Amino acid sequence: MSKSMLGTLELRDLHVRCIVGIFPHERQNEQDVYLDIEMDFDFAPAAQSEDINQTIDYTAVASSLTNLIVEQKFQLIETMSEKCAQLLLASYPQIDRVAISVKKPAAVPQAKNPIASVERRR
């Protein structure tokens, strides 16, 4: 039996162009959002085998989150962050903890980024 090797796989600034917001112009014009994603899970199976099937394919994570965000056309980044966390926990049973931060740079011109963050554990 292998020893557990808890690790964190991260994606930073995943760029998604989507409909997001509550105002009429936001419901018609796409905006940029950027996601930071952290996923904690046991790295031991992948580290010992060098097999992509023993880890989380971050390209697939990026694709599934992008598809969710584009299709759902969220009104709130709070909802977006929560639904992204739920999707990852449902899709990857090996994840022990997921943290998602959604940044919406165009929302407040005087600020670099309004950010909605969630952290969920199994």
Describe the structure.
- The structure is a single chain.
- The chain has 122 residues and is an alpha+beta fold.
- It has one domain: GTP cyclohydrolase I, C-terminal domain/NADPH-dependent 7-cyano-7-deazaguanine reductase, N-terminal domain (GTP Cyclohydrolase I, domain 2, 2-Layer Sandwich), CATH 3.30.1130.
- It has helices at 24-28, 44-49, 58-72, 77-91, and strands at residues 6-18, 31-42, 97-103, 115-121.
- A four-stranded antiparallel β-sheet has the order 1-2-3-4, covered by helices on one side.
- It is elongated, with a radius of gyration of 16 Å.
- The two termini are 23 Å apart.
Question: Gist?
Answer:
Helices cover 34% and strands 32% of the residues.
